[in-house]
């Protein structure tokens, strides 16, 4: 069973949580132990025996160390500790390195030893070092020996970290294993982390020399040592330029050095496709990659449009924006013909929207007449908070989570996800018809 599977998300996890909180506190470690064994044995039940052996082995070693320490017999305690380390590392080494050692002996000495074909049990490294940390902590006197084998088994097998880590020292969780306290605040934080894990992975590429997107995510422009400039001219890879932010979004930043990239790329091979080639290596790591293009048609913008699949066009509800929109469409058609045959219009979003102005209504009518369903239903209102947020280095949904600007952008994100969700064929009782191909908005 894996954390991203439907069985875990929709059945196992909710069921375990429900049983855990409904049962008396004295039963909860037993419930977690049983659930963890079920989780681990879902795919390969036979490997549960190895994990149970390690659990019982170090449970007994912990008691033995405590017994000898209580009677001042340090040599006996040390001998048990050595037995624990040798036994655990021996089991791990057997499964992990036996076939590796046989292959090297055969290669060096020309021996014909047959490989044993030993499969490495999932999570064996994690629980092996965890049980060892327990005996070491007991030997050092940091924690008393755990006399309840169910509590100790819960520590070793706990499913949230069993197969993916991290390795948790016993001393850090000893108190929580026996005396757990729950609160609504801690529960909400746990749910928040869980939801974040289900969220989309997003990378934003700042292709504007002004670097507004960079600073808007709290990254000082002077701190960008490897950014879009270095990626475009080949001094850094996209992976090296990625900055992880506290806002659950990765950013490839920019600064004024990027302004000279257009001139430096003139003589470089494949100059209009350099960004597309650079992002190809990290594309699989993200659900969406957004490229913030500068408000001008130069080699930087050409790289951005050549690298993307579609264009999301923000339109201010003003006359000059409407005039520039027609020129942009002409440019996109040219780029589609010459450089990027997959380029399409993702949609049009109205910004600085206010129905108090007659011009807003006129602009909306004109754009909807031309783009039709490509126009997003969500509009971004005029808001001083949206203007303030970048100066604090925060996205609006962190700067003012409950403001109208934040709610508008949240609605926009939801609409964007829905539009990009794979469509499911509708059920029909009658004869089915072949789906009509969707026309690209940039086709003549």
| Estimated share of beta-strand residues | 5-15%
Mean pLDDT: 83
Total number of helices: 20
Give the class from helix and strand content and strand pairing: alpha/beta
Query: Unreliable stretches, pLDDT < 50, 5 or more residues?
Result: 424-437
> Could you give a short account of the major beta sheet?
4 strands, mixed
Q: Globular, elongated, flat, extended or rod-shaped: what is the shape? A: elongated
Cross-sheet strand order for the largest sheet:
2-3-1-4
Terminal residue distance? 50 Å
Number of DSSP strands? 7
Radius of gyration: 30 Å
Share in helix:
40-55%
Give the helices and strands as they follow along the chain: HHHHHHHHHEHHHEEHHEHEHEHEHHH
Question: What is the topological layout?
Answer:
Layout: H1 6-22, H2 28-41, H3 48-70, H4 74-109, H5 124-139, H6 149-157, H7 159-162, H8 170-178, H9 184-198, E1 202-206, H10 212-216, H11 228-233, H12 238-241, E2 242-244, E3 250-252, H13 261-264, H14 274-279, E4 288-292, H15 299-307, E5 310-316, H16 319-338, E6 344-353, H17 358-371, E7 375-381, H18 384-388, H19 396-399, H20 404-419
Parallel strand pairs: 1-3, 1-4, 5-6, 6-7
Antiparallel strand pairs: 2-3
